[in-house]
Amino acid sequence: MEKMNILLTGGSGMVGSNLLNNKAIKTFQVHAPNSKELNLTNFEAVCDYVEEINPKIIIHAAGKVGGIQANIKEPVRYFIDNLEMGRNIVLAARKFKIKKLINIGSCCLYPRNQNAPISESLILKGELEPTNEGFALAKIATARLCDYIRREDPSCQYKTIIPCGLYGEFDKFDPTDSHLMPAIIQKVHQAKVNKLSKVEIWGDGQARRELMYAADLAEALLKAIQDFDKLPEYMNIGLGFDHTINEYYEAVAQVVGFEGEFIHDKSKPVGMNRKLLNIDQQLNWGWSAKHNLISGIEKTYRYYLKNYIK
């Protein structure tokens, strides 16, 4: 039996790499060009590639991503790069009549200051978080473009998955542009190695975040490929619960073996007070994450030691 032909953008990123690392992906014929093989900001190049491989389904996981410092420093790049990549792959899919597309969004596209779990209906219903507004606007534009194409041609089933914050293998551990969990792991590990007695946390540590182990998202994507027709047009993917920043530091300290104390610099930015997704649709769809916090951190820390510590 012929394998389903899939185009995966962002195959070298954390989401794409975890998907390619899952053994079940071998049941499909996956094309996952890196940025040298396919420049997603070049519309003609994207069209040529899509026309050549003629995929049955496209998974758009590519993106310019980074932590709060990087987003504050380079808002133009985070906006333009993500906007162009999203626009180009979605319009190329329409041009060559690719009927199925899964767009990977971000919880950053939701309004700020939401204390209750955030449902999919809240997109464009409030002010965005200023520290990553450019990135969020690009993600919103791509998701809406999928909507507009679907309205004009219902046979084009272009759907958006919105994951909560992620961490895991294949993440970035560069402190200048890493996400929350790898930044914590690197900081706490270095404190242990250098025998420091204190580790600094930005803000008071009471902001809450929902962070899921990225290999679990890969499992959800595999289900989305196989169960595409039942996938909602927008769907959050998450845990349904969150932790404070302080609790993430404490969990990492437990795994790493750091026995010092934490201090707080309340002058530093912390972003949104809370990001917790409503996962009712996800649960109705029949999926939930497997890893708990400690097991996810343990696997991520082993990856960090193997790949970043000489």
Q: What's the CATH H-level superfamily name of one domain?
A: NAD(P)-binding Rossmann-like Domain
- The helix-strand sequence is EHEHEHHEHEEHEEEHEEHEEHH
Number of helices: 10
CATH architecture of one domain: 3-Layer(aba) Sandwich
* Strand arrangement, major sheet: 2-1-3-4-5-10
The CATH class designation of one domain is Alpha Beta
What is the beta-strand fraction? 15-25%
Query: Strand tally, please?
Result: 13
Uncertain segments of ≥5 residues (pLDDT<50)?
A: none
Main beta-sheet strand count, sense and barrel state: 6 strands, parallel
Instruction: Report the mean per-residue pLDDT as an integer.
Output: 94
3D shape: globular
How widely separated are the two ends? 45 Å
CATH topology of one domain: Rossmann fold
Task: Write a structural description.
The chain has helices at 14-21, 43-53, 68-73, 75-95, 133-152, 180-193, 214-226, 245-256, 280-285, 293-308; strands at residues 5-9, 29-31, 57-60, 100-104, 157-163, 165-167, 198-202, 208-209, 211-213, 234-237, 243-244, 261-265, 274-275. The protein is built from ten helices and 13 strands. It is α/β, with parallel strands linked by helices and 310 residues long. It has a domain at 5-169 and 210-241 and 276-291: Rossmann fold (3-Layer(aba) Sandwich), CATH 3.40.50. Helices cover 41% and strands 16% of the residues. The longest helix is centred in the first third of the chain and has 21 residues, at 75-95. Helix 1 links the parallel strand 1 (5-9) and strand 2. The strands form four sheets. Strands 2-1-3-4-5-10 form a six-stranded parallel beta sheet, sandwiched between helices. 45% of the residues are buried. Helix 1 (14-21) packs across helix 7 (214-226) and helix 8 crosses helix 10 (293-308).
